[in-house]
Design goal:
With about 600 residues, this protein is α/β, with parallel strands linked by helices. It has 4 domains: about 140 residues, Nucleotidyltransferase, domain 5 (2-Layer Sandwich), CATH 3.30.420; about 220 residues, Nucleotidyltransferase, domain 5, CATH 3.30.420.40; about 90 residues, Barwin-like endoglucanases (Beta Barrel), CATH 2.40.40; about 110 residues, no CATH class. The protein has 19 helices and 28 strands. The longest helix has 25 residues. The protein is globular and about 80 Å long. The relative contact order is 0.09.
Amino acid sequence: MRVLVFNAGSSSLKFGVFDTGTDNVQLFKGSFERFRDGQCNFRFCTDTRDEAGEAPHSDLSAAIAAVPGVLADWGIDGLRAIGHRIAHGGAEFAAPARLDSATLAMIDGLTPLAPLHNPANLEAVHIAMSVWPELPQIGVFDTSYHLTNPARATTYAVPKAWRQAGLRRYGFHGTSHKYVAERAAQEIGQPVSALRIISVHLGNGASVCAVNLGLSMDSSMGLTPLEGLVMGTRSGDVDPGAFGFLSRQLGLSVTEIEAALYNDSGLKALAGSSDMRDVEDRAAAGESDAQLAINLYAYRVRKYIGAYAAAMGGLDAVVFTGGIGENSASMRRRICDGLEFMGLRLDHDLNQAVQLDNRAAPQIQAYGAKVRVIVTETAEQLQIAREVATALARPTTLPEPIPVAVSARHVHLSPEAVAALFGPGYELTPGKPLRQPGNWAAQERVTVEGPKGRLERVAILGPMRGQTQIEVSRTDSFALGIDAPVRDSGQLAGTPRVRLHGPAGSYDTDGLIVAARHIHISPADAQARGLADGDFVDVRITGPERGLTFTRTLIRVQPGAFTEMHIDTDEANAAGIRAGSEGELVPGVAAQAVTPAR
């Protein structure tokens, strides 16, 4: 499928044409940037031709309008779909969406949360619809990737009425962070679901993302793209008390303050230019303001890297991307210096010699460093093209209901744990068979003990596993006094330790989790519903009086599986679920599984 992708940013327009077959070939790459004095820089290239220069376009709108002519001049035709990067999709868009009057109205309603980005994104959509009215237009949202962030990362400690009105953290650059994490995992040679990665996207807009075991866990941007790092014209983190202070001292209105934080802050405010290349040149010439801007910029990034390494309980790789992250060896060095205590150390020569042709992802850490440092060119357009093709290829979701099972607290024991709890050579006694083939509840029970309390007579599910896993609800974790992370089954790295008690003794082990809600499904049922292993879907509970929709529900395709959704007791109580409840997949909502980057 030949897909045209628009990536209209706050200060540049990038666009490309891709054949989304097995190799995801990019046929054409174009960009307009550095708008000034009624003109801008452009670059267009294919495998056999490369042109760059200045174009008579004074702003982003003029550049977007010029794209159809550019494609015609370069002989690019045969398009089958148009993909659009949309900055802010709020909590409504968990996956790529077909753009029509209803979805465009929803996106426009989110403009106050991304005033530099959503208007440019929408303008590209409207122009594309007028030029190619017969082609499907698909939106891919920066915020979708971050909807896996836990509540502790997305919640502001503000009055409940504000939170109910939608005040929360969202995060941005999701398409870039997703691609970068997957590309880094490919370079490392491990699945992204086994790694703790910090993706550092440094451009005119900048953000850091903690990718914990394949999922976004936290991001430096918040309700809007203002929060977090110092950027080209955006302030990054500021004390919210600044609004009251500036209103009292300078008589500024909220609108004036907000506009200045978006358009007249960041590097532009500190050094007089929003372009890091200019700032570095001025700093090298001795300008103290530029030198402060560089030091502040690097310091803010370094703080977030340290914070996210702590939040994930460890770190396997830091990945630099974006125009500054890819091209500024000195900025990478400034950020990484001082992080040696974490096992992160650069090799000076490798850092200076980064080459990123053909989507390379060179490792630039010093020999013996425990944390990898990788540089790679972000490929947001390629990622968007993939997701557009996947969304259009997905069959319509079938309406058959899915049984919902409530999974109470239980443990899966290793042979070592069984021996410690019940005695050497002891074999668990299979009791009630479970609906998943080969699984059963044992007749034996154990006690789980934490620093605050105990959970008595906790069920044991068989057969035994290679590693002990204890699954509790969020409420159970508070009863124990331990912060149990939400994890997919088997993802136990960095999980907290807990003590188990049995008739023959006790056993201390890690592996305490709140199991992420998921659907066991057979390959045949998955194919019929257009689902793949690792997808995320939304499920609407249809039976109880207090029904609700569970978002971000993991699909686990397993041969011979009984198709069934598993939730914990807290989730069941929230929805008023009783025995025999069923759910239905929300049509058109299925987030793409994690796939290898090419």
